[in-house]
TrEMBL record:
<feature type="signal peptide">
    <location>
        <begin position="1"/>
        <end position="37"/>
    </location>
</feature>
<protein>
    <submittedName>
        <fullName>Cholesterol transport system auxiliary component</fullName>
    </submittedName>
</protein>
<keyword id="KW-0732">Signal</keyword>
<dbReference type="InterPro" id="IPR005586">
    <property type="entry name" value="ABC_trans_aux"/>
</dbReference>
<feature type="domain" description="ABC-type transport auxiliary lipoprotein component">
    <location>
        <begin position="40"/>
        <end position="196"/>
    </location>
</feature>
<dbReference type="Pfam" id="PF03886">
    <property type="entry name" value="ABC_trans_aux"/>
</dbReference>
Length: 204
């Protein structure tokens, strides 16, 4: 008995391009799943102790970060130093962009500067604040959210670093789940943002 070709089983000849589209559809159908839960970071609203800075205007650049932290994944670090992504969850945007936005908002909530802006927004400022995200993860070994950000206050005209400091915070995590991890990291970040806002203007 003659077997009909696979192409014929679809009612006749099938063009190669159509086969490729059909295969892609099957692959996509097999890979589809529930959308990841998305979490945001917040800026502290009650900001006390923020001092002024020369010129009352400040540029806040986007933080530097290693590739592991330059995305929207929520990171878990194991006791052996291994790094993994918490499955089924993500940040609302790239982590450096989120941190930059929340840092600017924290300065604004302190109400001690005339204008805080990103580079390219037409603000002429005497100082720029550069940061680097060194740690932003859940430590499975200590069950803590760990946030560590280095900051540099830079004189814009000369490029001279006026002052630099490392800020960090740790917050306990009650079970490494998406909501618990996001909540603890948000709390740790809020602590670090407050530390930076209270420090940087006072150094200018």
């Amino acid at each position: 008995m003659n077997r009909r070709s696979s192409a014929a089983s679809f009612g006749g000849s099938v063009r190669p391009g159509a086969c490729a589209l059909l295969a892609a559809a099957f692959v996509l159908a097999g890979c589809s799943g529930p959308a990841p839960a998305t979490f945001d970071l917040s800026a502290p609203r009650e900001v006390t102790g923020a001092a002024r800075i020369g010129g009352d205007q400040l540029i806040v650049t986007e933080p530097l970060a290693l590739q592991t932290l330059d995305g929207n994944a929520i990171i878990v670090k194991g006791s052996d130093g291994s790094v993994s992504q918490l499955e089924g969850v993500q940040w609302a945007d790239r982590l450096p962009k989120l941190v930059q936005t929340r840092l600017i908002q924290t300065f604004e909530n302190g109400s001690r500067l005339g204008r805080v802006a990103r580079p390219g927004e037409g603000v002429v400022a005497n100082y720029a604040l550069g940061t680097e995200i060194r740690h932003f993860e859940i430590s499975s070994a200590s069950s803590e959210a760990v946030v560590e950000i280095s900051a540099r206050l830079i004189e814009t005209l000369s490029g001279r670093v006026v002052s630099a400091r490392l800020f960090s915070a740790r917050v306990p995590v009650n079970g490494i789940t998406g909501p618990n991890a996001a909540r603890a990291l948000d709390e740790a970040l809020s602590s670090v943002l407050l530390q930076i806002v209270r420090w940087s203007p006072a150094r200018a």
